[in-house]
Amino acid sequence: MNVKHTQVTIYSMVGAISSEQAVRGAIQTHSKRVWRFGLALSGASDVADDLLQSTCLRALERHHQVTSHDRLDSWLMTICRSIWLNEVRARSVRKAQALSVTPEAELISPEADSETNIFAAEVFTQVMHLPEAQRETVMLVFVEGYSYREAAAMLDVPIGTIMSRLSNARQKLKTVMQLSAADAVRRSGK
Amino acid sequence: MKFSDETLIAYLEGTVDDDQATAIEHAVEDDPELEARLMALDPFAPMVQAVFEKVPAEAPKVELPEPQPVESSQSSGGPWRLMAVAASVAVVAVSATFWTTRPEPLGWAQQAAIYQSLYVPDTIASLDNSEQALKMQFDLAEAELGRSLNRETLEALPGMELKRAQVLSFNGKPLVQVVFADEQGQPFAFCIIRQGEGAPSKDVNLAELSGLATATWSEGGYGYMLIGSNPQTPLEGQLDILTASFAS
Questions:
Q1: Which chain A residue's Cα is nearest to B45?
Q2: Residue A41's pLDDT band (boundaries 50, 70, 90)?
Q3: Which residues in chain A (8-47) have CB-CB distances under 8 A to chain B?
Q4: Could you give the domains of chain B?
Q5: Which long-range contacts does A60-65 make (Cβ < 8 Å, 24+ apart)?
């Protein structure tokens, strides 16, 4: 098969890619990220499932609003958050009694040695126990790689707020890191 | 105000005083370069990312209604920038080609090659490569990367006409693509990504990626890549000049 030829053909079809097709492509490409963001917001994987599904349907309904195809990932994240805040949060919080986030340790894939796993589970738990504002900021910047100013635009807060949320989160995550560093020293000393 | 890496690391570790923390946060508002430096120095981000990027392990299921018939006269949103369209097509192509068969994330070089493989002579034929346009592009790209792009060397590459430098991003790291037209008008690209201090150096590796001849190497915290227009494009001449010019 001539791969180059196939790709050139796709390129020549650029003009025919509709906003709906672009949104469908983005949903497929970014579904993991949106789900993960939904998990960070809600703290529960079943709510993350629902948030992802609602986000995708909402995005498809609104594909006409899409004018540029290059920031569809942040657009999906913003829709997900808005559905969480406006439609799901009150219900979920009532249900879960003040959002006592239950870290779902089974989400951490069993691989590598058990010490690595224990560390990963600790980091996961610490992040999920951060206050919601810090948690969503950590997810967007640390995990999804958005810049401070992109995260500020998505969360509609000043850059300074993003930075101070991250600073507060780092202070809480520091404990885990120090423990793991101490662990590493201890292990290498064996 | 200029902040040293030591100061920025101290900020990230929470060991600077409040005044200095405020000064840094204030400075970042108008200084994307400082922002990029801070993000690259942050020891917490890779740690948290490594844990969360594996969640969820499987692609979650989404149920979507059947596609509507394509309207013939869309794109009313004004003239799309070629790059934006090409990038989104790359996303579609990547998802179509790799989503089901390739669960592990692609490296920056593979992604860059996929993107470059969408280029045809028409992509670059009409680019505005006036002095004014290039200067603006290079200033922006150098600020994002935090290093010089040695524009004089790039302009003097034998048989190559400099067409454009554009800022892209890979996993939050600034990635600059400099594109040229060769004597036949075929696209040729030189890419640089900032990998951060302490990134391992790697010797030149020649490979065919996405049907294109490529050469990649890493040195001094940056990754470099040359991409030809077909699997046989000779890269040696440019490679010698660029590895020497970008040696740290």
A1: A142
A2: very high
A3: 8, 10-12, 14-22, 24-29, 31-32, 35-36, 39, 45
A4: 5-49 (no CATH), 82-245 (3.30.200.100)
A5: A60/A20, A60/A23, A60/A24, A60/A27, A60/B64, A60/B65, A63/A18, A63/A19, A63/A20, A63/A22, A63/A23, A64/A19
